[in-house]
Design brief:
The structure is a homodimer. Chain A is an alpha/beta fold. Helix content of chain A is 22%, strand content 28%. In chain A, a hairpin with an 8-residue loop joins β3 and β4. In chain A, α1 (26-37) runs parallel beside α3 (75-86).
């Protein structure tokens, strides 16, 4: 496998572990459970600040009907149930970060580092990254990145901030979040009806199409604000920018009608939603098919022994991207890992219904039948 | 594949169907669900008189801890939840019967018949028979079978009957059921404390070992009844019988001490528990490994196209006999079957969270998110 940047350069002492799971979606969570039953403690890394993955990010309140024996549950409920189920195994969760560097050690272990600087040295690695890490969709304009974190912001959904008071604000996006932010900047950042609230100096909403995805009343409000010259809506793309001593001063927008506009800019808010990206894992040299990791169906191992892939990120003949399939994959991957972590002994299949050992691990004392 | 007895001899008109599932355990039930999502209606045959399979038969009240997102549930609860989940798909259940004969038709369909005379002509067949059909353990004594249903009985657990009043009753078995039946025959068949209840003339309990598996108080009661000459306990095996004009009159028991006893017998109750048997399926000529059916992991097809095997009955590299694995197998088997049932069209993967078509099939109208 390829090695990507040398984590040994880091000053952090690596955390030596048996199993690292990338992704805290339903399948990553159930991987914790299956490893736990085999007495393997797991660490979990996820780019989101909470568990649940796609379920929590894309459809937290939408019902799912095809989890066996759960006629209906939302993504949030499924996540909560899985978190409760895996609680006895005390997995360590590292949220809000991604693996960046990766290196195979001479002893077969993997040295990996997150973008927050945590370094793990792990015997086995489970990629349960779904369709990839959910990262904000970026604007494709060379050189713009240099303003990231200062004038270029990917705001969290729904969080208002008065730092944009009296600023020239440009908002890129066409959905509810973008439209909502435009309203807040026009009307002030607190109670929208309070005229004494600080407002942005100018508000420009830029979207690649002339159709916004928002409710009819919001669209009417956008129209009214534009008519009253309190907001400007440009259908088009960012094509350039101007700066002065490292400070962004204006953006160039090329309209879908071919018209170019210069928009004075103090703050640029990007609200184009989240997009899943496989990220650095794609550079590890694992055998892939399109954007999926090829696995065998005996242990769901990737082409690199010790690295397993479970859930939507893997592919094999017959693969269906369903949560229930990911759950099965976790079982066989856990046994595959056990053979690596405990090379000296055979790990037998035990049943949670009958095994006193598993009852102890789960912290339960079942009644006699 | 082998053909076993010709069902065409039957006078019954075959029921023409798309999918027949053998086994109504958790995996057979979830197979109904996965077929239902693909608009394939299923018929289900099970030897037990109710759904649940091993879960319901072997551990109905014992907790299971490893069903994803169900921290704990009993076998009975799991069965009930699955029955509720599959209800929208209106599967037809045929309980208390086994498939006996099997024949492949020239058009590729399978003609199968149950021991209750129902004949199906099905495009696809799903064997979800677990460790096999649960049938009462029999006594291995040549010629004894001829009394079956008359003097030789496999009683249902817990059902008393006064037909044994004034009879010489021999009970074979060493567990709770056998001991319980012995008590009821000694004390009468209704309220045990009512001395006016009809009693058996004699009660002999025969078990292959001199250790009974029953609670200490029951063992004490057995001892007391034997001391009082109201019951006889023989540790040994049935080695012969006598009959008179087709009527069983006595049994020969060879004790573990080598002693032979003749026991007058009007009724022989066999209570040695249930034992799983693969049954006639083993004679269909499918590729097997020990007692399991070999399947591919792309569609969980057996060696015979159109016959799938899911759950504990199948085997493949990495196989673990866990319910969660069987659930996954159902998904891929359903798609494998869809390719046979709908050869003219590709069956796409749809999600229950987003597909209006699946919502319609499930009979749900999810709230907008």
């Amino acid at each position: 496998v390829a090695s990507v940047k040398n984590p040994a350069d880091s000053h952090q002492h690596p955390i030596e572990i048996d199993a690292l799971i990338v992704g805290a979606g339903p399948v990553g969570l159930f991987q914790v459970f299956q490893l736990g039953l085999l007495e393997i403690k797991a660490h979990v890394v996820d780019v989101l600040p909470y568990a649940g993955g796609q379920c929590a990010e894309l459809y937290p309140h939408k019902p799912i009907y095809d989890i066996p024996a759960l006629s209906v549950c939302t993504g949030r409920e499924l996540t909560d149930k899985l978190l409760a189920q895996i609680a006895p195994f005390g997995a360590a969760f590292h949220y809000g970060q991604q693996l960046t560097s990766f290196e195979k050690q001479p002893d077969g272990r993997f040295l990996v580092q997150t973008n927050k600087g945590i370094v793990f040295c792990t015997k086995t690695l489970f990629i349960a990254a779904g369709v990839g890490a959910f990262l904000p969709r970026t604007v494709n304009l060379q050189g713009l990145d240099r303003f990231y974190g200062q004038q270029l912001i990917y705001p969290n959904t729904g969080t208002a901030s008065s730092v944009y008071a009296d600023k020239n604000v440009v908002i890129v996006g066409g959905g509810d979040d973008a439209v909502g932010w435009a309203f807040r900047c026009c009307a002030g950042f607190g109670d929208a009806s309070d005229a004494s609230e600080p407002k942005a100096r100018s508000v420009t909403l830029v979207h690649r199409r002339d159709v916004l995805q928002a409710s009819p009343d919001k669209l009417a409000a956008v129209h009214a604000l534009c008519e009253a010259k309190k907001m400007r809506f440009l259908a088009g793309q960012l094509t350039g920018f101007e700066e002065n001593n490292g400070v962004l001063t204006s953006l160039e927008v090329c309209g879908i009608d071919g018209q170019e506009s210069q928009v004075p800019t103090d703050a640029l808010l990007i609200l184009q939603g989240l997009s899943p990206k496989l990220g650095p894992i794609a550079q590890w040299g694992l055998d892939m098919e399109r954007k999926q990791l090829r696995v065998d169906t005996e242990t769901y191992s990737t082409s690199e022994p010790g690295i397993f892939a479970v859930g939507d990120i893997n592919t094999y003949p017959g693969k269906k991207k369903l949560i229930v399939c990911g759950f099965h994959e976790c079982v066989l991957a856990a046994y595959g890992a056990a053979a690596i972590i405990f090379p000296e002994r055979k790990v037998p299949l035990q049943y949670t219904t009958t095994s006193p050992k598993l009852h102890q691990l789960l912290g339960v004392i079942p009644a006699a039948d």
